[in-house]
Structure formats: structure tokens, C-alpha cells
Amino acid sequence: MMMWLCFSFASAMVSKSRRLKIEASEVGGLALKTRHASAFLLALAFSAVTAAAQVSSSQIDAIFASLKSSNAPGSAVLVVRNGKPVFRRGYGVTDLRTLHPIDGRTNFRLASFTKQFTAAAIMLLSRDGKLHYDDHLTDFFPDFPAYGKSITVRNLLNHTSGLPDYEDLLMKQYPNTPEEKIPQILDTGVLKLLEQQNSGKFAPGSKWEYSNSGYAVLAMIVEKASGKSFGQFLQERIFVPLGMKNTLAYEKGKNEVPHRAYGHFKGDNAWHETDQSPTSAVLGDGGIYSSIDDLVKWDRALRDHTLLSEEEMRPALTPVQPTDGPAKFPDGPAVSYGFGWFVDPYHGHKRMSHDGSTIGFRTTIQRFPDDKLTVIVLANRADIDPQALALKVADLHLGTKP
Description:
Layout: H1 2-23, H2 30-53, H3 57-63, E1 75-81, E2 84-91, E3 108-109, H4 115-128, H5 137-140, H6 153-157, H7 166-173, H8 187-195, H9 212-226, H10 230-242, E4 248-249, E5 264-267, E6 270-273, E7 288-290, H11 292-304, H12 310-313, E8 352-358, E9 361-368, E10 373-379, H13 386-398
Antiparallel strand pairs: 1-2, 1-10, 3-7, 4-7, 5-6, 8-9, 9-10
Helix pairs in contact: 1-2, 4-9, 4-10, 8-9
């Protein structure tokens, strides 16, 4: 389709130049300039076609060559270009017990990739009039300590709330306890831990600090505002409408993950299944399981504004500006973050992205909306960097150099 459009565009320009040449016969030199201009445009059109054609499946396949194994965990890779999947492939196995090959249906724990869905749930409720971005934490939880009175939903969405990290609080609650002995915490448990604190880490809105706690609280706000469980709301308002039939917020004992991949860690020269940790049952910050077959539908919904209009999505893609200075990781580079999305450009290309990292899983989504390109990498092993791999694929399509 893209090739046809390029040729049609070039042909139209040539036809136009011929008409201009006849009309310009009385104005010496204009015809020659027009002919040169259309030749230049034609060259550009052919260049665009050639650049797209140069990205072959074998080139992408080579990037993931180290994951090709029939007895090791691996990854699922999706590339969408101009609205159509142009590469969809699985590498390795879902687990070491069945050795089932990873394919397009394989469901991985998304980890923090989940945050864009949590943010979308909040944005849908905002459109419904069930909440506002400037509502405060204590509007939903009146018994929350006083420090919650100045924390807004917007602060939670863009990581400027100052809420302490629940993982740190959990470790303090179980000092000197092996991790495997610590019981799993739920979103409700995160809220209780936060209610036991007397203050946040900083004044809301003054600084940016990535907060899993904030997104666990957002899941609880979804429940308060909608009157439904977080998982049910996601099903009814996002997954079912988009046809994401096998995507879910996993709750042990309440539902099952179809075509499930299990997480793994490599140590002592051997693979070990490390699928669950004390924090793996928290839903709002990382508890969704999905596959590349379902995520291509999510990508389409983002592109076509199926769930949220372009105007409604604008806050999600607007970088937060903390009052005390630019948003940045501790001792790291400055970042741009909206609602559930990093919005840092990549080599001059507009980008919206998010990574996920949890015990045994690594994930990433890299979207380049102006270039109509999306690369998604889901892995059930902790020894690879999906973002780096995804950007190598993006480089092939964008013509950028790492």
C-alpha cells in the first residue's frame, strides 16, 4: 500500500509538472525548473519505497539470534508499520516443564508496561465524570493521613506524588526475612502501608520520582470511582471492546492466564523459574498479562483513538514540569513523562514508550507515532534488555544510528 501511494504521489507530481511546462513556455526557464523539481520529488518517493523495502525479516531476526533456542526461555517480538503487523515472531519456550514454543498468543506479565492501561482506566473515568485529575487522595480515602490532602490524581499519574516506595516499606515490615518467605502484598495492602506513614518524601508536584506506589493507589481509585474491581473495569472498558480476548489482570485463585509464559533467571549456568515475588500480585503497577497478538489491537486503538480521542489523550503525552526543576531519575538523565508514558524523543523522532521489569520478565513498547512505527518486545527471562533490542529494530526502519 505504501509503495502504491509513493508511486501515485510521484506520478501526480510528474503530470502536474508537464502541465506547468506547457503553461510556462512563454516564461523562459520555468519549465526546466519544474521538471527538475518533479524529478527531485520522484527521487524522494522512490527513496521512501526503497528504505522501507530494505528492512527484511532476516535483518530483524538477526537481532534476536541469541534467543533462538528450543530449551530456554525467550521472547515475543512485534513490529507494526503503517498500521499493519510486518513482523511477528516468537523465540524460545514458555517454560522449562512443557518446552512449549513462544508464539503470538503467549501471555507475558507486562510489569510496568501495565501502567499505560491503569492510566487509560483513570482517563476513561475522567471522561465519564466519575473523577477529575485535580481530585485529592483524601477525596477517595477520607481516612488517609493528612499528607494525602495535597496529593492529586494527576500527581499519581505523572509520578510527582512523593509517596514512598511500597517495596521499601514491605522490606522494612519483614526485616531479615528471606524474600521467598514474605507473603505477597495486594493493592489494598499497599494502601494500608502508605496509611501507616506520616508524610511523603517531598511536597507533591515539586519533584519527579518514579512511583509504583502511586499506580497501586490509582488501581484502588479506579475501584472506588467505578464501583467495580480493577480487573473487571479493565475487561469491560478496555480489553473486551478492543477484542483483547486473552489479556487480563492476573489474580491467583480468581482467574487463569491462558498460554502463559513463566519468568526465568539464569544463575550458576542454569535457568531457574523465578515467576513470582512478594510484589507480583499488585495489579495497578504491573499485574497485567498480555500477548503480541492482543497488543497489536492495543496499538491500533492508540493510533485510531478508539477508546480516547486525541484531545483526551493529550494529557497522557504532555511532559510533567515539577516546580523544583526538570524531571529526572536520581543521579540520572532528565526524562519526560505524562500519564503512564515516557515521551522522550529518540534521535529527533517523536516517541511514546514504557519498559517493564519484574522477577523473571522484561518488556518494552516503543511507539513512534509520526513515523507510524511500533516495536514491542516481551521476554520471560531477566538477562536481556528489551528496549535496546527494540531500538535496534526501530533503527532499521527509521534509518537512525545508535
